[in-house]
Amino acid sequence: MHPFEVAQREYTEESGLSADTIRCHGLLHPVNTARMQPIVPVVADLLIPLDEFMSKAISNGEWNDLLAVPWCEINHPDRWSWGLFNGRKPHYVFMTPITAGRYLDQKNNNSMTHILWGATARMVWDYLALYYRPRTSF
Question: Please, are residues 8 and 1 in contact by the beta-carbon 8 Å criterion?
Answer without folding.
Answer: no
